Amino acid sequence: MMRFNKYSPKKGFTLIEAVVTTFIMVLVIATAISGYLFMERSNAQQLVETQIDTEMDLATARLNHELRLTSLTEAVYYPEGGPRYTAISFPLRRSTNYVFNAEGSLPWDTTVIYHFKKDDREETGQLIRTEISPRETLTLEKRKEQLAAIAENGNWNNATTRVLLENITEWEIFKEGNSYDAYAEFDQLDEEETLGTFLVDPGENTLKLKITGKNSKSTGYKVGLDTLLLSASGYPREAEQQQASGTPSPLLETVTAGTWSGYRQLTFPANSADQEMEVVFYNDRFEDTNFDLPMASHSNTTVGVLDHSFSPPDLALRLKGNTTNWTAKGQIFTDAENYNDVFTLPGSPVRCWDDLGGSVFRVILTDIGTEYSGAGCRIAFSASALGDLSISGAVIDEAVPPVSSLMHTAGSPKILTFNNFGSITIPAGETVFSDFADFPIEIGKYYAVTFRIDRTRNRPKLMLGDPARTNSFFISQTELPGTDHSPLTIQQWAGSGYTVFAVPFIAAVELMHTTYPKTGTYISPPINTAENKPAFEKIEWTEYVPNGTGIKVFARTSDRADMPSSSWKQITGSGGEKKTKVNPPLLFERYLQYKVELTSGDKGINTPKLRDIAFQWPGETRPVDIGGNLVKGPDYGQFTAELNGQPIPAPIRINIETKADLFFFGANRKEFKRKSSIRITPRN
User: Fold this and answer.
1) d(CA 377, CA 426)
2) What b/e string do you get for 72-81 counting C-beta neighbours within 10 Å, with b at 16 or more?
3) What's the whole-number mean pLDDT along residues 341-367?
4) What share of the chain is helix, strand, coil (3-state, %, to 5)?
5) What is the DSSP letter of 460?
6) With the CA atoms of 10, 14, 20 and 24 taken in that order, what torsion angle do they form, in degrees rounded to the nearest 10?
7) Looking at per-residue confidence, does 185 or 11 come out higher?
8) Paired residues of 421 in beta bridges
9) 313: which of 26, 176, 306, 605 fits an S-S bond (Cβ 3.0–4.6 Å)?
10) Beta bridge pairs of residue 82
């Protein structure tokens, strides 16, 4: 018999499966390569950007440093005629061993030249620094020849050169001059402007602003100053607080709109060219007139708010408060009266109005809307528009949460009076405040106002809140004889034998007004005097202290900004409103900090006010950036500045732009550019 073997083909990939598998593998490899290339491109791009940023930062830092140490009166520029220059030559002093020459100037020993060399084959060039040391004694004309030779050919005896920056696409030098144009379409504050850098002497100095003309679009010649930078310690001063004179007379103007510091400015109302204003200031001095320094801390005090009791209005440090502290509207989100007089009381279907006469209410004031602590308070009660309200007794006490049928008070009730009487009748639709009560209010606590309604005039204003929330409790007149006022002072009504109803509305109590708190504190941040051992010679401040109130001033110093182990020393000054303390004791370190404690009078009705405070010490002669926040507007003019009779050196501006190319796999090219503009005023 013939036998046949059964054939079983082996399993394997079909052609279609092989093609699909190969395609997927190609996709995976392509994705991996694409991701790798993207990552490499990102890394290369970041490296180029970092390199171009670093090179630009190093070059501009060197320019800044060297130009600030020179004198622009000794500088020369190339090419002549301007206004754009490509090279500058200026002197420097390398040696620290020197004496001033007969004219009081530094004996320069080095010449430094920055110039631009363009590559004829490219669109870019190089920034080259050339140094000639020792500096040659040359006339001005020879100095110009020297600069032209180096700028054009790069050659000079005893010169060393170095390329500071490659691939420069823009290099421009401008002499800006020290004339300031204050014209603008509308009144506005300019950014903090540096008029120049000058040596400021100890004691009094005089800044003179001289009108030179006006922009063709301007309608006037005015000058406006908001703040001034006048001290090596670097803290701005309010321009209007400085001693200013001129013809016509400078004015102090209040500015309620915009971002003016202290809401005021010093204005010189000039009406023609050649008019001058002088501002006398002291070096070195710290002044605080706004009490809004960054990192200052304050408790129960108000800062940055205009006080209209001064004429003109001014900022002052005072206690915070003496205003509405709580409203029924803030608690239940409405102050509208609900005229539905058929409220169904718990367990009783009778009319609400008929049941309120002779009853006692306890209204709970939660901390919703509470903003101010106060040494005292008063409560406003409101009658319904439908009838008069007679209150025969009222008290206020602290309430103990949570708000529930078990709500009770702390047990220190204060009787509320009305024109010194314990009862009052409020006409329909009107609101009446109680007298101020000597009862302190603290932020975040709950309070309870308990009052009894007369049987005959029983129309309190009813303000309905969330129906599911308890806002008031009351004991019905059916529980109380006509002379029973004991629930006013009972701490816990639950368990007292009375039937207590919890209701969602607020009855009659509409406002709480708190007085000023008993005490308030302001602590300045540490102030860097920029002197290692300043000998403080005077502290002065302006205070307004009504009877019963008080102000205490404290100060401390340290050689460290964190003020370690520095104890406060109270400063007592002599004089009336303007207090002065000469040679304050034990203040001699670099960092200064001051503290003010304010106390209110009887019931907190009055507050003391500190209008300004200043610390003064004899500073050293040193370079100071003179400037500040200047005002611009449609009727402002042009002016120059002098310090102590000497023109403030004019600044220069340098624009630099450099680029770098990133080539990726030959065909792809990406260009990166970095531009910088520096404005420098030499100190000498």
Assistant:
1) 20
2) bebbbbbeee
3) 69
4) 15, 45, 45
5) B
6) 20
7) 185
8) 418
9) 306
10) none
What's the CA gap between 325 and 368, in Å, rounded?
10
Distance CA 405, CA 96 (A): 84
Are the CB atoms for 277 and 307 separated by under 8 Å? no
CB-CB contact of 599 with 519 (8 Å): yes
Closest Cα to residue 331, out of 428, 437, 470? 470
- What is the amino acid identity at position 582? V
**For residue 30, what are its two tokens?**
């392509």
Burial 415-443 (b: 16+ CB within 10 A, else e): ebbbeeeeebebeeeeebebebbebbbee
Contact status, residue 499 vs residue 479, Cβ threshold 8 Å: yes
C-alpha span between 71 and 75 (Å, rounded): 7
Q: What is the pTM of this model?
A: 0.70
Buried/exposed code over 517-530 (b: 16+ C-beta within 10 A; e: otherwise): bbbbebbbebbebb
Distance CA 257, CA 265 (A): 12
**Residues with Cβ < 8 Å from 65, sequence gap 6 or more?**
none
pLDDT tens digits along 575-608: 999 999 999 988 889 999 999 999 998 789 999 9
Amino acid at 487: P
Residue with tokens 């997927």: 24
Among 223, 228, 227, residue whose Cα is nearest residue 269: 223
Residues in Cβ contact with 513 at an 8 Å cutoff, skipping those fewer than 6 apart: 322, 323, 324, 325, 377, 378, 379, 380, 433
Phi-psi region of 560 (alpha: psi -120 to 50; beta: other; left: phi over 0): beta
Residue 47 has phi, psi (to 5 degrees) of -65, -45
Q: What is the structure's pLDDT at 482?
A: 80
Neighbour count for residue 649 (Cβ, 10 Å): 19
Q: Are 221 and 271 in contact (CB under 8 A)?
A: yes
| pLDDT confidence bin for 665, thresholds 50/70/90 | low
Q: How confident is the model at residue 503 (pLDDT cuts 50, 70, 90)?
A: confident
| Residue 457 contacts residue 425 (beta carbons within 8 Å) | yes
Measure Cα distances from 348 to 133, 206, 218 in Å: 106, 84, 79
User: What sections of 397-477 are H helices per DSSP?
Assistant: none
DSSP code per residue over 330-399: HHHS--PPP------BTTB-S-HHHHHTT-EEEEEE-STT----BS-EEEEEEB-TTS-EEEEEEEEEEE
DSSP secondary structure string for all residues of 564-622: TTPPPEEE--BSSSEEEEES-TT--SSEEEEEEEEE--GGG----EEEEEEEE--PPSE
